């Protein structure tokens, strides 16, 4: 599985301005950490947050946890410097907030490329994701998903979206149903990942769990989280069952054996299968391995 | 880089350090208070002085209030305070080249 397609069940938001938060976040084992330079950082501390971020990226060993930076919006004077600091420090990816058009992605892509050149980073090594937070962004989701080779995924951001729609959180998620569905369709069409919004009520772990179950059923790859307490719940919900793991292992093994014989279509337990089933099976095994449920050869 | 005004970076939260930099007529003076002064006082001073040297600061009065910050945090806060004190607000030379 390449870096672009790595597992991202959980992305934990951290205020880049607060050393106490960013120095050891990896111990909670989220799949990704999201250093926030945007909403969590006061206007007069944007510079301090960048210095803090830059040195943390260079010096703290996150032990394989992916390091993504949420830059400030493209309508602010901060985002270009955010990208320079992030790329200079060696961030794994950049998250664009409030993305509405494919052009937003292309603009950031070009700034990242310039920074990779300036700081002698490998061209294309800094990945990209977009956060969609408005009805316009939802309606343009497919073109956003297809706007850059760097882009590994899109996330729906609920707070701003609900405000735009003049609605509020409901337990059923009905107010977000159209947006979630549209963004998922766009992401799957473009072959990129899709992430659900944060759940902000840390006193309602039951409601959080129900929302994560819904996310998995809808087809999301993962969820943004705001507390270490939410990580294990997401990982447990996304963990495949023993039956799913065995079936996936059987598919991958059978495909490889048949490929050696030049056979492309075959049957497993009476079901006709072909190579198209392999990516799903490999993802199941990767999820199982990340959940500590699988130590097999695939 | 020349310190032309007083600037502060960092907070008094746990794991952070607050650095205050002021113009100083002659040379550099560093005053440190830390919850781990006996164990790490010399190391903190060395990081601050090394960062000032890298940024080409010849004279400054530096006050350090440490709350158990990592080395990289001390460096980050010192750099931020220096750039603020020098009136430098954008296009930072990430990598810390001398100015």
SSE topology:
The complex is a heterodimer of chains A (298) and B (99).
Chain A: E1 10-15, H1 19-22, E2 32-36, H2 46-59, E3 66-70, H3 79-89, E4 93-96, H4 102-118, E5 127-132, H5 135-139, H6 141-145, E6 151-156, H7 158-164, H8 177-190, E7 193-196, H9 205-218, E8 222-225, H10 231-238, H11 242-261, E9 265-268, E10 271-274, H12 278-290
Parallel strand pairs in A: 1-2, 1-8, 2-3, 3-4, 4-5, 5-6, 6-7, 7-8
Antiparallel strand pairs in A: 9-10
Helix pairs in contact in A: 2-3, 3-4, 9-10, 11-12
Chain B: E1 7-9, E2 17-22, E3 28-34, H1 37-54, E4 60-66, H2 71-85
Parallel strand pairs in B: 3-4
Antiparallel strand pairs in B: 1-2, 2-4
Helix pairs in contact in B: 1-2
Describe, in short, the structure shown.
Chain A is α/β, with parallel strands linked by helices and 298 residues long. Helices cover 44% and strands 16% of the residues of chain A. Chain A is built from 12 helices and 10 strands.
Give me the CATH fold name of chain B: Ribosomal Protein S5, domain 2
The sequence of SSEs of chain B as H and E is EEEHEH
What is the CATH C level class of the largest domain in chain A, in words? Alpha Beta
- CA radius of gyration of chain A is 20 Å
Radius of gyration of chain B: 12 Å
Strand order in space, largest sheet of chain A? 1-2-3-4-5-6-7-8
CATH top level class name of chain B: Alpha Beta
Unreliable stretches covering 5 or more consecutive residues of chain A: none
* CATH fold naming of the largest domain in chain A: TIM Barrel
Low-confidence stretches of chain B: none
Largest interface: A-B, 21 and 25 residues
Helicity range of chain A? 40-55%
Q: What portion of residues of chain A belong to β-strands? A: 15-25%
Shape of chain A: globular
Structural description of this entry:
The complex is a heterodimer of chains A (298) and B (99). In chain A, helix 11 packs across helix 12 (278-290). Chain A folds into 2 domains: 3-238, TIM Barrel (Alpha-Beta Barrel), CATH 3.20.20.60; 242-290, no CATH class. Chain A contains 12 helices and 10 strands. In chain A, the strands form 2 sheets. Chain A has an 8-stranded parallel β-barrel, surrounded by 5 helices. With 298 residues, chain A is α/β, with parallel strands linked by helices. The longest helix of chain A is centred in the last third of the chain and has 20 residues, at 242-261. Helices cover 44% and strands 16% of the residues of chain A. With 99 residues, chain B is of the alpha+beta class. Chain B has a single domain (7-90), classed as Ribosomal Protein S5, domain 2 (2-Layer Sandwich), CATH 3.30.230. In chain B, 33% of the residues lie in helices and 23% in strands. Chain B contains 2 helices and 4 strands; from the N terminus they run E-E-E-H-E-H. Chain B has a 4-stranded mixed sheet, covered by helices on one side. In chain B, a hairpin with a 7-residue loop joins strand 1 (7-9) and strand 2. The radius of gyration of chain B is 12 Å and the shape is globular. The termini of chain B are close together. The A-B interface holds A 18-20, 23, 47-48, 50-52, 54-56, 58-60, 81, 84-85, 88-89, 119 and B 9-11, 13-16, 69-73, 75-77, 79-80, 83-84, 89-92, 94-95.
């Amino acid at each position: 599985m390449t870096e672009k397609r790595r597992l991202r069940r959980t992305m934990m938001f951290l205020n880049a301005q607060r050393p106490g938060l960013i120095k050891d976040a990896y111990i909670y084992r989220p799949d990704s950490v999201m250093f926030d330079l945007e909403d969590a950082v006061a206007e007069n501390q944007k510079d301090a947050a960048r210095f803090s971020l830059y040195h943390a990226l260079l010096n703290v060993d996150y032990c394989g946890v992916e390091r993504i930076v949420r830059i400030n919006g493209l309508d602010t004077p901060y985002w270009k410097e955010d990208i320079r600091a992030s790329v200079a420090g060696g961030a794994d990816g950049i998250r664009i907030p409030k993305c509405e058009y494919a052009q937003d992605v292309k603009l950031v892509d070009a700034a990242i490329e310039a920074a990779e050149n300036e700081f002698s980073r490998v061209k294309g090594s800094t990945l990209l994701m977009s956060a969609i937070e408005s009805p316009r962004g939802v309606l343009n989701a497919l073109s956003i998903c297809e706007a850059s080779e760097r882009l590994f995924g899109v996330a729906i951001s609920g707070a701003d979206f609900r405000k735009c729609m003049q609605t509020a959180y409901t337990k059923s998620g009905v107010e977000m149903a159209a947006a979630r569905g549209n963004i998922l369709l766009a992401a799957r069409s473009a072959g990129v990942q899709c992430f659900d919004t944060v759940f902000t009520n840390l006193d309602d772990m039951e409601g959080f769990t129900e929302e994560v179950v819904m996310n998995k059923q809808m087809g999301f790859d993962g969820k943004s989280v705001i507390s270490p307490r939410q990580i294990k719940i997401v990982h447990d919900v996304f963990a495949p069952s023993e039956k799913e793991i065995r079936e996936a292992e059987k598919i991958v093994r059978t495909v490889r054996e048949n490929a050696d014989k030049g056979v492309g279509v075959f049957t497993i337990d009476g079901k006709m299968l072909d190579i198209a089933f392999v990516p799903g099976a490999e993802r199941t095994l990767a999820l199982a391995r990340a959940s500590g449920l699988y130590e097999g050869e695939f | 880089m020349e310190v032309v005004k007083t600037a502060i970076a960092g907070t008094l939260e746990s794991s952070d350090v607050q650095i205050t930099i002021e113009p100083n007529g002659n040379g550099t003076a560093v005053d440190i208070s830390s919850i781990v002064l006996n164990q790490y006082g010399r190391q903190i001073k060395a990081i601050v002085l090394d960062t000032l040297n890298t940024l080409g600061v010849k004279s400054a009065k530096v006050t350090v209030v440490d709350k158990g910050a990592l080395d990289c945090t001390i460096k980050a806060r010192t750099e931020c305070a220096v750039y603020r004190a020098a009136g430098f607000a954008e296009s930072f030379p990430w990598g810390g080249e001398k100015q």
